[in-house]
Prior knowledge:
This protein has helices at 19-32, 40-48, 63-77, 99-116, 182-199, 218-221, 239-242, and strands spanning 52-56, 86-90, 136-138, 141-148, 165-170.
Amino acid sequence: MLPLLKKEDISTSNQHLPTWALDAYQPFAETVAKKDFPCYFGIAAQKKGDLRYGFVPHDNWDDALQIINDFTKLMHTQEKAVRRGLFLFFEPEETEQDLEYYRDYFWRFLQRLHEVDDIAWPAERPRDPDHFLFDYHIGGEAYFLFGNAPAYKQRITRDLGPSLVIGLQPRSIFDGLEGDKPAGTKSRGSVRDRVEKWDQLPKHPDIGHFGDHSHNEWKQYFIGDDAEPIQGGCPFHHKELKHT
């Protein structure tokens, strides 16, 4: 099992890292280092070493649960609040696939992660993805997730290299930056303007803010490579509802 890693751990001198992990990480690091990368929070976190990383092979998804739980523990034990993020890199396909392949992979992984997680979902949190207050929990912690894949050709901000890359942000890092607060509105607006400039596309119609009654957060997890709303229901099913 590969552990939770810092950026200085990811180098050719780390004999535990497979070649594919280094090949997956390098384009990500180069992209996030660009001064005009839309997410200036990401730029700052990468530069300061606040981000953490995990590498997930095709044949072993379950170890990712330990990586995420180790990251959650880090968030809970750090001496001061740091707006950390975790990025999971998946072993690249031999041949690049289309966007639906990566979308399906993303949702199957989230479902599997949920199935093997033995920490109960907080009792007060909705289980139904269509509830406007639904958010995904791992190890009892609320996370916002977003998928990135090489199949994105128009929304190039979502192409971070040859791998499926899942970004995980603890809900707690958004304290003070909620969508209904001035600081949150300002910061989100700035980032989204920069995204539109990079992608040369308008904001995706499913992008909103948590707590908006007309918004389903799960639709933001893996948006389309276009400006069309996502159709159909959420592929994720909470195990308490799934088995009833």
